[in-house]
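Hey, I'm writing a tutorial for new members on how sequence and structure tokens pair up, and I'd like a real worked example in the thread rather than a made-up one. If someone can provide the structure for the chain below, I'll link this post from the tutorial.
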Amino acid sequence: MENEIFDLWNDLKKYIDSKGKNVYPKHREVWYISLWKNIWFESNWKWEEFKRPVLVLNRIWAVYLIVSMTTKWKDSEFYYKLDERYFNKISFVTLSQFKTIDKKRFIKKIWKINEIDFIEIKRRIKHLF
């Protein structure tokens, strides 16, 4: 079963790579992106259709710095609880899970977080690293 899912992900990656996308996410926006399931200690989203919510931190040309989001909290300095309820649940930003991705991975914009939360998230990431 795992190999079949891996093959599906490879087919999706080929499709994503072949298409051009005219999306231009901005900082503070939360998007669903195409992403393979996480491994080992990483936080897993319910990853139907290989999508996961992320917060856009910054952009350099077509490459974006993003941080993962979850609705599961752990008692750790690596989680930031958002003030507003997104996904109809309390949401968290996983501060330790940031990465760069290509703009082709963006699927759908969900919302934009408030400026106060965004400033605090950036401050905490700088403090951690």
